[in-house]
Amino acid sequence: MKKILTLMMVVAAMLFAACGSKYAYESVKGDPTQTRIYTLDNGLKVYMSVSKEEPRIQTYIAVRVGGKNDPSETTGLAHYFEHLMFKGTEQFGTQDYAAEKPMLDEIEQLFEVYRKTEDEAERKAIYKRIDSISYEASKLAIPNEYDKLMATIGAQGTNAYTGYDMTVYVENIPSNQVENWLKIEADRFKNVVIRGFHTELETIYEEKNMSLTQDGRKVYEAMNRALFPNHPYGKQTVLGTQEHLKNPSITNVKNYHDQYYVPNNMAICLSGDFDPEQMISLIDQYFGDMQPNPEIPVLEFEPEQPITEPIVEEVWGLDAANVAIGWRLGGAASEDADLANIVGSILYNGQAGLIDLDINQQQKTLSAYGYPSLSADYGYMQLAGRPKQGQSLEEVRDLLLGEVAKLRAGEFDEALIAAAVNNYKLEAMQYLDSNDGRADMYVQSFINRTEWKDEVEVFDRLSKITKEDVVRFANEKLGEQNYAIIYKRQGKDPNEQKIAKPEITPIVTNRDAQSDFFKAVAATEVKPIEPRFVDFEKDMDRFEAQSGIEVLYKQNTTTDYFSLEYMFDLGTIVDPALGLAFDYTEYLGTLAKSAEQIQSELYGLACGFNLRASTSRCRITISGLGENMTKAMDIVEDLVANAVADEAILANVKQDMLKSRANAKLNQSSNFSALQSYVIYGEEGMNARLSNEELMALTSEELLSKVRDLLTKQHTVVYYGPATKDELLASLNEHHNVPEELQPLEIKRLANVPTPENKVFIAEYDANQIYYIQYSNRGEKFDVANDANLDLYNEYFGGGMSSIVFQEMREARGLAYSADAYMSTPTYADGTYSFTAYIATQNDKMKQAIEAFDEIINTMPESEAAFNVAKESYINQLRTLRYTKASVLYAFINARDMGLDYDRARDVFENVQTMTLDDVKAVQQQWVKDRNYYYLILGDSKNLDLNYLRTLGPITFLSQEQIFGY
Fold first, then answer.
1. Cα separations (Å) of 814 from 135, 503, 529, 795?
2. Half-sphere exposure of 756 (CA within 13 A, CB side)
3. Tens-place pLDDT, residues 700-719
4. What mean pLDDT, rounded, does the chain reach?
5. 759-964 — its CATH code?
6. Which residues pair with 721 in a beta bridge?
7. Element (H or E) spanning 181, and its range?
8. What fold does the segment set 541-735 form as a domain?
9. Whole-model pTM?
10. Would the pLDDT of 9 be above 70?
11. How confident is the model at residue 800 (pLDDT cuts 50, 70, 90)?
12. CA dist 387 to 309, 392, 398, 648, 917, Å?
């Protein structure tokens, strides 16, 4: 086995090194990531790993505090403080902090009075006062200046997330901007100022309202309540209660920051292109004076009592019914962790686990799965499933429990343990091959208090797990009675209540204002990173295999992972039965092997396969451990060519597809996707899917012939893996079974419909929120000469948290948690441009949201300062853009789809250098202003202002049968 696996298997020992530096660090012998772990004098942990593939660094700043640490009277605090960390400090985010501070102090005091006042009239009066002072304070604020700072230094992926155990702040920065990034983050973490509070709180209300329609979240929270009644995991939620969100406390927020946002409770996690010695010195320079808190509050909770009989809960929601079963385990650093991961894979791995073969492959439920979830203090093993048509949740429960009973009885092949370990290694190999994966592992290790040595040694420990260990674990932890079960019933949730919309005066955006801090950062001279655009002649290889098959090749030089894809320019727009044919095939065996044997053999080889069809293409993909590629090819190609029909299986596949289609009609996101497809792609798009009648009429022979015939048609092989070109060519010539002459394909692409006039389309969905899109297509054909202008317009107008859309729709008006607007470039050379604006918001904000979009789209706010930020951000993105690994191959495919044989980013980079705000204004005038729109709304029409909507255009009410096509 190649070097990564070999190194990961060695017995590691923790080393401490100074290496001529004043900064000692910990490392682990045999660690392929060569991770260094520093601890500054103030307790700040720094995890780092160097990777030179691209001139960027993935950064996470992790704080070991989350929803479990919220005060019981202000739950949700950790999450909304995460939002407030983007509001700035005394140095940035403000034009005059000394003048702003008295107003911020008064707002804080008023919120304390507000949260303790019960009389509604008094509360409204106080809130009106808060709103009024907030508006005055906003005249001195500079909204989103943190995001503008990040854009200026070329950061990407600006974000943050909050869980029960952690709050983590995310940036991906250019390698030449380390000091500026540290300067900004140090000021942010030491000196955050709570401003823009009431509009940000409105955004959090929207996020909470969105969560109330997410049935998966309801099941998750119910499972936590059942398994952890004595712990905050079960006693409160990360988003908090509606009552607490309506009564927030800035005072509590400040106290929370002072207690927990301290260096001895934080870690900086880095992976990318940097010098470790320089990096730790700079981190010490900017974070070394941060004061620790020797008395960080220790979370106290009563130990959970053993569960002696099943705990049963029910939740309701509009999505399809499902059931989940959970057994309580220890946390990520406990002795349970290793066995939980292997036992989870024995039960379910997507291929050959007990649930995979006994339930899914046998079509006993619509779907079933399982996994371990391990947090810092506790964890659980969860199994879940969806019922077939006419099947009860109780029947699904019994099937799942039956597989756990087999585990307890030892009724499984011991070889499954070794296979699970090998697949676990493969997944880790892929994960650690990216900067994001490495840095995220550091976050998990820090938050869960696991030693990095233990993370490196994990495969050595897993390889020693025996069948006796698995059976003992199953009997001790996954018993017959010590579980919780959550029935997610289908129907209206009787507990659902939306948070009422408060009256908010839109704050002043001060788009042209810049703090001295911002100006200093922007003026800092750094050595530019020279762009390196992909060269398809040098960065990949193209050659022919037998029968003239085109091969796109990129060697994997870092791991043993391979991906081999057969790509056909044949999609459901030409043959809508392809998806059903693929689904059917995956349940079948051959004359030589059963379906169960096929999946078990592939899993044992640490390989897998996937058959998938989109509107324009279909693919057969084989992936896994490189040394086993040809064995996997033989198995998969034998199935494709020689699958044996089974009418009972086909009947089940059809019935399950009908059930899945019925379930999709219950889901909000699925309804919205169907509405978009119906309106944007029209009749041609509807023809790319089978009607129920067409589906039921298809025979086994018709379906299998579609799959069998694929390898007789022209296709491209896309390979990324460790084999050399000669090795790959030999493997293809020997194991890829194709005729001497391949049949040509009918190439057809799905076209967007034009929008010659304004129209409104409404599809019904019973929810407190609407999903809204306004879409416009004037039929303009693709021209590469437009790229730079349109890209820079998108960056300025809709590109992230420093854009016009984000500032106006979320920051200034508090209309939504999520909003976007952009010009779309087609994905094929014969495609057309379109413009789209999107928002998800409360029903009663619809008119306000549409009018706000209309205002900023047709009368675009102009700011030279904002334009400069957008331009600098985009140029920095292009400077650090690198196509590596398999992405080179797909960049080539995308370019060729556009009729190009080169990386068009090269032209964009050259053209954008001289562009001005006038160029963006010209785009807005020529491409965006005064377009005709199709307005798409998914919502409850009883709660919509239909008279207002009629002023936009004639309304068409669409049924589910129309938008889904069945």
1. 13, 10, 38, 21
2. 0
3. 999 999 999 999 999 999 99
4. 94
5. 3.30.830.10
6. 555
7. helix 178-191
8. Cytochrome Bc1 Complex; Chain A, domain 1 (3.30.830)
9. 0.93
10. no
11. confident
12. 24, 6, 12, 18, 56
